[in-house]
Amino acid sequence: MNEQNPTDGHAALKEKLKAQKSHIKGWGIDADPQNDPTYPMRRRLSGDKSHLAWERPSQQSGFEDVLHSNERPDVTRVFGTSAPASGVSGALRRCAFHFSEGRFSHWLLLLAADRVDVIAGFANDLCHGRGSQCFTDKGMKAKWEHDREAVITKAAVGVAVVGILALICFRRHLLPQKPPAAHVVLARKCRRFLSRF
Questions:
Q1: Residue 171 pLDDT
Q2: What is the mean pLDDT of each run of 10 residues along the chain (197 residues)?
Q3: Domain count, the chain
């Protein structure tokens, strides 16, 4: 039985692919092992294991309330605690981390917690006498200075959309009521009559 060397088959396949893709500019540019940026690391990992002799860092203290994936057995050795979970958004975040990261409920709860944080930030600004800076944050001052026509157009479209939606929602109260059709009146009378029996 003729056994073929696996590296020969690999080399033949590599040459075949190179011939097929030769029209692509830059194809196979990293095929040369002397020019491969990962080649020294590959050579180091092949036999020498001395670089793996490192001590695991000690666990950072205060990790009782750090949220981490339920797919990990423990928190990482070093973590940030600059914005701990608190309030309603913190409760939503804690609830989110009961679910796997592969489920929509995990991410939707985290998004909801972010929105709650935004609303809490607005409320906190108002309580401290500071108004919202949403126009400044969106660059409206610069837009007004440099592209006034676009700002006016967007504002007009926004007002029109809100006006149409308000008209649709409140049309029953704004428009005169038509009297019900004859068949509706007859059906009501029949229901009243039959309800006696």
A1: 73
A2: 54 74 69 62 59 68 72 71 80 87 88 90 84 75 88 93 86 66 78 78
A3: 2
Q: How far apart are the first and last CA of the chain?
A: 97
Residue numbers of the domain that contains 141: 133-197
Torsion of CA 149, 154, 160, 162, to 10 degrees: -150
CA distance linking residue 138 with residue 151, whole number of Å? 12
Same structural domain for residues 146 and 114?
no
Q: Does residue 30 belong to any structural domain of this protein?
A: no
137 and 197, same domain (yes or no) = yes
Nearest CA to 121 among 140, 110, 134? 134
Are 145 and 136 in contact by the 8 Å Cβ rule? The answer is: no
Tell me, rounded to whole angstroms, the distance of Cα 179 from its chain centroid. Answer: 51
Cα 77–Cα 78–Cα 80 angle in degrees, nearest 5: 140
Whether 157 and 193 map to the same domain: the answer is yes
Encoded amino acid at 173, one letter = H
Q: What's the chain's Rg over C-alpha atoms? A: 34
Domain co-membership, 137 together with 194: yes
Say how far apart CA 7 and CA 13 lie, in whole Å.
10
Within a domain: 186: yes
